[in-house]
């Protein structure tokens, strides 16, 4: 892959965030290239979620800028740490919410086009939860809900993915399966993934690069390629 | 060495809390209200009165069962229609009364309106409606629709306020429009609660619809008035009461089960 002549989809320049009088990170420079899986690591409370919400546009960084280089109608596929599913809506409907940005209010008032429903079903099937399609999200387990949140983001077919610990509630096999899908999205469809991950094994296996935030010093972050020799 | 905490070191009024304080106030109010129990002062044989009057109810006169059931059906129709209209109108109104959805001035105005509606009892709404549309079941539908709005509007707005609005914001972040985010992000979380309140209102309206006929607003209440006013018809009156008891108990039983089921589904596996 020739990275040097590919335009990044997302670039952070001199990014810094100060929360409650404390700098979480400063002078952060990195970019997210198409076809790459970038892992975000660091101890709990270091500011991973805050960085992701800055990139998603839901939080203003204290300093620096974020350059988005993709068509706005494609949007960003987000897997929230709190999942943020509609409890009283079915798993299928929650998944279909990923397609809301494609239609106006009137089109989705009474439901989604057949093709979208088929796509949603296939995505759920791939994540192994198709049989739950008509259950309320509230009725499913945390692990199942996490996969619904992933399915919703996948169905969006966004410009890029931001995922906040997207596989924290999944067992090894299911986590790997989900991360495999994200990796495929990046490599084959050019929808890069920026995901906060805790497990070094997952980082080693799926990520191309790793952005590590430091708990001691906000400017002490590191960005490096992930070596695969450990595998 | 730390000394033992002695009770007299803590001021006595520290023991007061909202429960025992309001209970004391309530007891005081009861004491001050005792004169209400004095009665007329005439020497009445209460026990004989109640047995004589009560015996007139038995046995219930089942010869009127057929027309009683017909008017019971009309009572249910009044309750169903009025609950339906009230649900629609209350949904709109409650959006204006929910603090997380509407501006403050609108919330205050809408809540005042709902308070005013709730102040008027169902029988008074029925009287008003009869004056306007005449003595028929339409009057009952109109009366109970207004009456129900007062309650449902309040319950619905509380349901909206209790809902997790972060899902709505999440969908907005993912590119959904405001209306879409409401429909798919907020509404699904509120819908079960709203349906649960609506079922309760339907039960309640069947009870209310049974009495508003007393002032001519249709339903089984008309029969109640008829038999209460005519001499020696308490056995017929008791048949009517039994029919009301039957339908109210039935709806109560069904409603309770459905509401419990909704609650269980919402609590799900993460309870």
What descriptors fit this protein?
heterodimer, A: 231 residues, alpha/beta, Rossmann fold, six-stranded mixed beta sheet, three-stranded antiparallel beta sheet, 7 helices, globular, B: 271 residues, mainly alpha, MetI-like fold, 2 domains, 10 helices, 0% strand
Task: For the record, give the distance between the C-alpha atoms at the N and C termini of chain A, rounded to a whole number.
Answer: 21 Å
CATH topology of the domain at 36-43 and 76-225 in chain A: Rossmann fold
In DSSP terms, counting alpha (H) and pi (I) runs of 4 or more, how many helices of chain B? 10
Question: Any idea what the CATH architecture of the largest domain in chain B is?
Answer: Orthogonal Bundle
How many DSSP-defined strands of chain A?
Answer: 9
Query: Can you count the beta strands of chain B?
Result: 0
Task: Quote the CATH topology of the largest domain in chain B.
Answer: MetI-like fold
Largest two-chain interface: A-B, 34 and 30 residues
CATH class of the largest domain in chain B: Mainly Alpha
Fraction of helical residues of chain B = over 70%
CA radius of gyration of chain A is 18 Å
Please report the first level of CATH classification, the CATH class of the domain at 36-43 and 76-225 in chain A.
Alpha Beta
H-E string of chain A: EEEHEEHHHHEHEHEE
How many structural domains of chain B?
Answer: 2
Provide the CATH superfamily of the domain at 36-43 and 76-225 in chain A: P-loop containing nucleotide triphosphate hydrolases
Q: Low-confidence stretches of chain A at least 5 residues in length (pLDDT < 50)? A: none
The structure class of chain B reads mainly alpha
Question: What does it look like?
Answer:
The complex is a heterodimer of chains A (231) and B (271). Chain A has helices spanning 48-56, 91-96, 105-108, 114-126, 142-155, 172-189, 200-206, and strands spanning 10-19, 22-32, 37-41, 63-68, 76-79, 160-164, 193-196, 209-212, 222-225. By secondary structure, chain A is α/β, with parallel strands linked by helices. Chain A has a domain at 36-43 and 76-225: 3-Layer(aba) Sandwich (Rossmann fold). In chain A, the strands form two sheets. Chain A has a six-stranded mixed β-sheet with strand order 5-6-7-3-8-9, with helices on both faces. Chain A has a three-stranded antiparallel β-sheet with strand order 2-1-4, covered by helices on one side. The longest helix of chain A is centred in the last third of the chain and has 18 residues, at 172-189. Chain B has 271 residues and is an all-alpha fold. Chain B has two domains: 7-47; 69-270, MetI-like (MetI-like fold, Orthogonal Bundle), CATH 1.10.3720.10. Helix content of chain B is 73%, strand content 0%. Chain B is built from ten helices and no strands. Chain B has helices at residues 18-33, 46-55, 65-97, 104-119, 122-133, 137-162, 166-173, 178-212, 221-229, 234-267. Chain B is globular and about 70 Å long. Chain B starts with 17 loop residues before the first helix and ends with a helix. The A-B interface holds A 56-58, 73, 75-78, 80, 82, 84-89, 93, 97-98, 100-101, 104-105, 108-109, 136, 138-142, 152-153, 156 and B 164, 166-167, 169-171, 173-177, 179-181, 183-192, 265-270.
């Amino acid at each position: 892959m020739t990275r040097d002549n590919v335009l990044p989809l997302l670039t952070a320049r001199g990014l810094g965030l100060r929360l409650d009088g404390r700098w979480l990170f400063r002078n952060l420079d990195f970019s997210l290239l198409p076809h790459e899986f970038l892992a975000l690591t660091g101890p709990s409370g270091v500011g991973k979620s805050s960085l992701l919400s800055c990139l998603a546009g839901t939080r203003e960084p204290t300093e620096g800028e974020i350059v988005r280089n993709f068509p706005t109608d494609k949007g960003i596929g987000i897997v929230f740490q709190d999942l943020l599913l509609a409890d009283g809506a079915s798993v299928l409907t929650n998944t279909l919410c990923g397609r809301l940005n494609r239609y106006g209010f009137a089109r989705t008032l009474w439901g989604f086009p057949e093709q979208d429903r088929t796509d949603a079903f296939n995505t759920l099937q791939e994540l192994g939860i198709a049989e739950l399609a008509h259950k309320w999200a509230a009725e499913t387990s945390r692990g199942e809900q996490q996969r619904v949140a992933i399915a919703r983001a996948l169905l969006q077919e966004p410009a890029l993915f931001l995922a906040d610990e997207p596989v924290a509630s999944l067992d090894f096999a299911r986590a790997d399966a989900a991360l495999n899908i994200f990796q495929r999205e990046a490599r084959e469809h050019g929808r890069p993934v920026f995901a906060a991950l805790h497990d070094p094994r997952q980082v080693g296996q799926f990520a191309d690069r790793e952005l590590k935030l430091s708990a001691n010093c906000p400017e002490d972050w590191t960005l490096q390629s992930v070596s695969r020799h450990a595998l | 060495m730390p000394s033992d905490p002695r009770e007299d070191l803590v001021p006595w009024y520290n023991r007061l809390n909202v429960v025992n304080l309001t209970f004391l106030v309530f007891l005081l109010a009861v004491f001050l209200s005792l004169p209400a129990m004095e009665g007329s002062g005439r020497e009445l044989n209460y026990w004989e009165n109640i047995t004589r009057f009560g015996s007139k109810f038995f046995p219930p006169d089942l010869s009127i069962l057929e027309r009683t059931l017909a008017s019971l059906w009309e009572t249910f129709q009044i309750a169903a229609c009025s609950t339906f209209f009230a649900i629609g109108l209350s949904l709109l109104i409650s959006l204006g009364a929910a603090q997380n959805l509407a501006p403050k001035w609108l919330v205050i105005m809408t809540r005042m309106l709902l308070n005013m509606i709730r102040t008027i009892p169902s029988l008074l709404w029925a009287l008003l409606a009869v004056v306007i549309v005449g003595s028929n079941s339409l009057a009952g539908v109109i009366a109970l629709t207004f009456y129900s709005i007062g309650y449902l509007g309040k319950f619905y707005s509380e349901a909206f306020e209790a809902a997790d609005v972060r899902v709505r914001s999440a969908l907005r972040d993912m590119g959904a429009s405001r209306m879409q985010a409401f429909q798919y992000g907020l509404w699904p979380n509120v819908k079960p609660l709203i349906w649960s309140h609506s079922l309760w209102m339907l039960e309640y309206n069947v009870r209310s619809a049974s009495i508003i006929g007393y002032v001519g607003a249709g339903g089984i209440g008309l029969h109640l008035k008829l038999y209460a006013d005519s001499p020696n018809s308490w056995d017929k009156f008791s048949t009517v009461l039994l029919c009301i008891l039957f339908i109210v108990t039935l709806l109560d039983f069904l409603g309770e089960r459905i509401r419990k089921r909704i609650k269980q589904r919402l609590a799900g596996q993460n309870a």
